[in-house]
Amino acid sequence: MLTLVSIKNYIKAFLIQESFPKNPLGSSPRATPEKYIQLHNIAQGLVYPELDALEKNTGHSIDRKWVESLALHTQVVIKKAKLNYQHGRLLYVVLSRYLVDQEKLLSDGVTILETGTARGFSALCMARVLLDRDAPGKIVTLDILPHNKPMFWNCIDDHEGQKTRQQLLAPWFEELERIIFIQGWTKEQLQRTGLSRVHFAFLDAQHTKEDVMSEYAYVRARQCSGDVIVFDDVTPGLFDGVVEAVNLIESEGAYRLERLSVSGERGYAIAYRL
Predict the structure, then answer these.
(1) How far is 255 from 57, CA to CA, in rounded Å?
(2) Mean pLDDT, the chain, as a whole number?
(3) What is the per-residue pLDDT for 15?
(4) Is 1 helix (H, G, I), strand (E, B) or coil?
(5) Is 65 helix (H, G, I), strand (E, B) or coil?
(6) Per CATH, is 4-273 categorized as 2.30.42.10?
């Protein structure tokens, strides 16, 4: 059985050289730094009462200055939809609550799995929880985008030239120490991670029903009572495949589900293993 240490050593040695789309996020900067700052200012002015209430009721909340700084470099992008990076707040609350509830059972460390790394925002938010709670553990995150290949990321850093994800996230070096990055398609790489246990998962990769169910099946087989899965983009009309998968998962009865909608374009589901 692989330990967290052996997983780290194994994955770092297992360099995956898979092909990926050329310039997946653009071949040049898509906006000026001033434009990204303007978008960030707008996003910061939005309010989300549902998350405010969740933070108040649980007593857990992410440091706003910290998360906004991270969001400027990893979540403020040029796109048609309204910017919304509230999953950072949600993950912080849910993971914090899980660590408190399971503290006595996690003396050997918590294993967190994420599918869909993107620029690394959500992985760093979860790593921040581990640091804030002085909790042992690692985050294993998968994405087709490479971690160590310079590219444009459709973010404010692009005006400095192409960067690797490692370089993009370099200011958050403490958080990075808690994260293992794997490149590859989720379906192919999940079985290669060697994980025998997944305490907490955030599923946010391919948004088809088939892909979500495949990721869910992998996690379910490695969870025990009290463990958690968070599903992103559970939004009818926009991501119906995710919605259908979550509904099917709930009907199976292995998990108790809570749903949270923070806007018409962003919904989440939190699944608790029974």
Answers:
(1) 22
(2) 91
(3) 41
(4) coil
(5) helix
(6) no
Q: How far is it, in rounded angstroms, from Cα 264 to Cα 270?
A: 18
Closest alpha carbon to 268 in 234, 237, 228, 243: 234
| pLDDT > 70? residue 171 | yes
- Which residue has tokens 């199976």? 252
- Report pLDDT digits (tens) over 144-153: 999 999 999 9
Query: What tokens does 144 get?
Result: 């087709």
Phi-psi region of 257 (alpha: psi -120 to 50; beta: other; left: phi over 0): beta
CA gap 118, 205 in Å, rounded: 9
Beta carbons of 231 and 246 less than 8 angstroms apart: yes
Least confident interval from 90-94, 150-154, 234-238: 234-238
Q: What is the pLDDT of residues 9-30, one digit of tens each?
A: 334 434 444 456 678 899 999 9
160-182 in b/e form (b: 16+ CB < 10 A) is eebbebeebbeebeebbebbbbb
Read off the amino acid at residue 172. W
Q: At residue 193, what is the residue type?
A: T
Would you kindly state where each structural domain of the chain is located, as residue ranges? 4-273
Phi and psi at residue 86, to the nearest 5°: -75, -10
Q: Which whole number is the average pLDDT over 169-191?
A: 94
Helix (H, G, I), strand (E, B) or coil at 2: coil
**C-alpha to C-alpha distance for 17 and 20, rounded to whole angstroms:** 9
CA distance readout (Å), 230 to 160, 200, 201: 34, 8, 6
